[in-house]
Design brief:
Number of helices: 14
Shape: globular
Order of helices and strands: HHHHEHEHHHHHHHEHEH
Largest sheet: 2 strands, antiparallel
Strand order of the largest sheet: 1-4
Distance between the termini: 22 Å
Strand content: under 5%
Structural class: mainly alpha
């Protein structure tokens, strides 16, 4: 048990650190190649916080733990909204003014509904994985095209651009990129093995492992990004990290178990857990899009979201 705890903590620490270095190296290298900061901010930087979920999902799928990979996606999306935004909102009201976010949130709802449709029959197929991946690339293409075609200032895009590293020598950027690429799969494997060892000792299912221990662990980069965004008064970036991560998880990360290890899915994933993902996503949309001109997540919203997260985790552990 102690070894599994050490493996989990070491894997989680290395996963978060290597994901950060991978994004730093990739973004700096892309900038040195001459790519516009806006493009880098909307792609590499925006998707960077989901790198842990991607590598954990791929690792779990390759090891035949499809339910863990699916649980990681669903659990991370719930944790992003309830735990991450809950904690962040408790630090102070989060205001939303970005037009990009007002487009991305309905897209997140649509992608979540599609994932529920795919999971409804208790199977996840390669065709469904391919559809998700194609939609992901189409969505990224649309967002990039829209940002380029519309010259008006958008707080989210401005804040994303500001996150792109400047004046990083190309050899240094490549070094961090390579280090990230090497450590990400290794640390993901350590984390999965440690989490599985701990969870099996408590007779938890593969799905619950993904929904709890692994989901919370892989959501830590979003927590760091959201808290940093609020402290820097970049509220739109804080919300954008969560919405973008949830979109990436559904379309790109969920595609991995479908493509690598298609087959049967735990029935609870398509009922209890999907309903939770959909309910929290709808709640976020209502809070941000339908609250009049204020469009704020207030501290009391954060308290409700955090209480929801705790209640859901307790339900999972008792199930």
């Amino acid at each position: 048990m102690l070894f599994n705890i050490f493996l989990l903590i070491a894997g989680l620490g290395a996963l978060v650190w290597s994901a950060d270095k991978f994004v730093f190296g990739a973004a700096a290298f892309a900038r040195n190649l001459g790519l516009p900061p806006m493009l880098i901010g909307l792609t590499i930087v925006a998707m960077g916080s989901s790198a842990p979920e991607m590598f954990v999902a791929a690792t779990a799928s390759l090891e035949g733990m499809t339910d863990t990979a699916i649980g990681n996606v669903l659990g991370s999306n719930v944790a992003n909204i309830t735990l991450i935004l809950g904690i962040t909102a408790l630090l102070g009201a989060i205001s939303v003014s970005s037009q990009t976010l007002k487009r991305e949130i309905p897209m997140m709802l649509g992608a979540t509904a599609l994932a529920g449709y795919f999971l409804y029959d208790g199977q996840l197929t390669r065709i469904e994985g391919l559809v998700l991946l194609v939609l992901f690339f189409a969505l990224m293409g649309y967002l990039i095209w829209h940002a380029i075609a519309n010259k008006e200032k958008d707080p989210l895009i401005d804040e994303a651009e500001s996150e792109v590293p400047k004046d990083v020598p190309t050899p240094k950027a490549i070094l961090w990129l390579v280090i990230g690429l090497v450590l990400l799969p290794l640390s993901a494997d350590w984390m999965v093995q440690g989490a599985v060892g701990i969870a099996k000792a408590f007779h938890m299912s593969d799905l619950v492992i993904g929904l709890t221990i692994i989901a919370v662990g892989t959501s830590l980069p979003e927590l760091a990004a959201c808290v940093a965004g609020v402290l820097k008064k970049e509220d739109d970036l804080a919300i954008g990290n969560v919405v973008g991560s949830n979109l990436f998880n559904i379309l790109a990360v969920l595609a991995l178990p479908a493509l690598i290890a298609p087959g049967a899915v735990d029935a609870a994933a398509s009922s209890r857990d999907f309903y939770m993902v959909m309910a929290t996503s709808v709640a976020l949309a209502i809070l941000i899009l339908l609250t009049g001109k204020a469009r704020q997540l207030r501290p009391w919203h954060g308290g409700v979201l955090l209480a929801t997260f705790i209640a859901y985790q307790v339900t999972l552990f008792l199930s």
